[in-house]
Each structure stands twice: as structure tokens, then as C-alpha cells.
Amino acid sequence: MDSSPISVARRLSSGCRPASSRRYATVSAATAGGQVAFPGVGVYHAAKWGLEGFSEALAAELAPFGVQVMIVEPGGIRTGFTGSTVMAEPMPAYKGTPVDAMRQFSADPAATGGDPATMAARILATTTQDLVPRRLVLGSDAFEAITSTLTDRLAEISPQRENAKL
Predict the structure, then answer these.
(1) Where in the sequence is the domain holding 27, given as residue range(s)?
(2) Do residues 133 and 155 both lie within one domain?
(3) Domain end point (choices 96, 112, 128)
(4) Which of 47, 74, 60, 49 minimizes the C-alpha distance to 9?
(5) pLDDT tens by residue, 42-79
(6) How does pLDDT run across 7-30, given as a tens digit for each residue?
């Protein structure tokens, strides 16, 4: 069975028409990496940003059928993710670059922090609300990174108001 987000959404949307008194919610498992980009993991971010864009569109498409879409954006989670990272031997040319920073992050088990069970409980509790948030940010690292990035983005765009008038 294909469990890609698009396949799941297709199956979900066909099962909930026409709109009924039942309430449905679907959860997209993104990360803070769907809002914030770090050097060295561009392919990862491309996938997460794509999932977030798809989820935004899906939310608008499914709203008339009473289906809510929640994008979960956790920060670091203690899952052993960095412990499975395989890296090539260090090369002096990469010292002090984003590649070096990624190597240091991957080598530090303390770099990931949130408790997976606590995060799962928060996700489940949130899906039982009458109105689920479009985004559920989990972890202080995710909250800080996302709010900082969005603030910076607005500061960069705001002075362009006159340019936008075409």
C-alpha cells in the first residue's frame, strides 16, 4: 500500500464526501525544517517544504468536506536519527563550512532533544479539538527557529511594498 502523503490524501478525500456531521482531521508529519532551512540538508528541506505546500493546498481543498489538515512541525526529537548518519572521512577543505557544522551536529547525541512519547501525546490530544491548528509546533528549538525565520522573512519583504505595486 502506498503511504505517500498524496496517496493517503486521495484515499481520505474519497471516503469523506459528501460533508457529514462527522469531523475528520489529517496530520502531515513535517518538521521545523519545513519552515526553516539549514545548510547541508537542502534535499531534506525540499521534501519538507513541498509537504507543507501540499498540506496547505490540501487544507483548502478538503475544508468544504469538514476535513481539517494539521501540519506537525517538531524540532529535535530523541530518535537516534543522527546516530544512523554515515559520513565520509573529514577533509580539511570543509573545515568551518556547513558540511563541518553538519558533521558536528550529527556527532552530538545531545543535539536532539524532545521526548517522542510526549510529542505523540500532544499530537493526539490536539487532533481531538474541535478546531485543530493548521500548524502544531513542538519543541522550544522549533518554536524559536520558526518564529525567528518568519520574523526575518517579514522584515525582508516589508520594505518591498512599493515594488509590489505593479
Answers:
(1) 5-78+115-164
(2) yes
(3) 112
(4) 60
(5) 898 999 999 999 999 999 988 888 889 999 999 888 77
(6) 777 776 666 655 555 567 888 889
